[in-house]
Amino acid sequence: MKHLGTQTIKTKRLVLRPFNMDDALSMFDNYCCDSDVCKYMTWNVHKNIDETRQILNEWIKSYENCWSYQWAITFKDDINNVIGSISILDTAIDLDSGEVGYCIAKKYWHQGITSEALKAVIDFAFSKVGFRYLIGRHDVNNPHSGLVMLKCKMIKTGQEVNYFPLKQKTVICNTYIINND
After folding, report:
1. Residue 118 in 3-state DSSP?
2. Angle CA(76)–CA(104)–CA(137) in degrees, nearest 5?
3. 100 burial class (0-12, 13-18, 19+ CB within 10 angstroms)?
4. Sheet holding 97-104, edge to edge
5. What pLDDT sits at residue 35?
6. pTM score > 0.70 for this model?
């Protein structure tokens, strides 16, 4: 594997790029303060923009590590308006796997944007970095997230119980996998 860190990825409609501190307002306004978006996330709704700035600061610091993968989802014609995020989590310099995670502003649900972003991240992870496989999980009460993974050729492997510490709750999740074949 050759960890490269978060690099800009372009698709037909999107630019996936590293976050910067100027993204806080669009993140907060577009999805971090939306209870519908955050309902199935591992994190809580942001009460104010300072919470968004805090997580953004952590993500930006993580870019110092070549195995950090955290992208802002933007449109090609408006790269300063962050409409979502996508990441590969639980990676390390000596591991060949990771877990994908994503969220998108409600305004952009059911338009194929998240699938387009995930396909691009999977391609980057396999062809550029050399991941052997990626997994994804979603709350069973959020089947649309599973449809995104299926569109991206991920295979459902079963269910598992996960604890979300920030929400102090246990959730049953469907698990998916894709191999670099």
Report:
1. helix
2. 125
3. buried
4. 9-10, 14-18, 69-75, 84-89, 97-104, 133-139, 169-179, 155-164
5. 95
6. yes
